[in-house]
Amino acid sequence: MTSKAQWYFDFISPFAYLQFQQLAHIEKELELEYVPILFAGLLGHWGHKGPAEIPTKRHDTYRFCQWYANTHDIAFQMPKSHPFNPLPYLRMCVAQDSDRETIAQIFSFLWTRRPDPQSDEVIEELARELGMTNFEEQLNSPSVKNALRQNTEQAIAQGLYGVPTLVIGEHRFWGVDQMDMLKAYLSNQDLFENDAHRRIKNLPTGIARGK
Length: 211
Description:
By secondary structure, the chain is α+β, with helices and mostly antiparallel strands. It has one domain (about 5-200): 3-Layer(aba) Sandwich (Glutaredoxin). It is built from ten helices and four strands, in the order E-H-E-H-H-H-H-H-H-H-E-E-H-H. The chain has a four-stranded mixed sheet with strand order 2-1-3-4, sandwiched between helices. Helix 2 (about 40-45) crosses helix 8 (about 140-155) and helix 4 (about 85-95) packs across helix 8.
């Protein structure tokens, strides 16, 4: 039986782009809904920094992404600046009903062509390529803004703390590096039904910072 799942993503994340290129390997096994969210909303909710906000982690993250793309033969170039404001791109996606073709086109534009994502001219160029007319009106539409906000609130309600995350039932699979575990779960949905995983789920906290 095909499982229902949600894939939460933000175009700001190179990991989301890299995982998107590999979703075709599992899409036949899932009834997959693509859900664009604002990653910054998760950071604000949980009160932690993104990987690009810690200088050494920023460098190591970019290095890993380039290595991963090269290793898996995925076209990849960092944009001219990162992090960038992803709101125009997320709203474009929502305005186009978050269909797979639009998502693929936006990801490819940002992560293979090395654009300046902060440039108004670049945003306009992508809107034209997507066939959007009156795109500024669409991006500022209350319904589009509300849909993105609701997506992000839904992600928080499901316990998400990062992107990309694929959710199947109560299980979250965070990041491109959990693809193997996700595939294993799709092959055996009793994968986590054992004493070891139950202990992990209920493991007590030994110490907390500031306490």
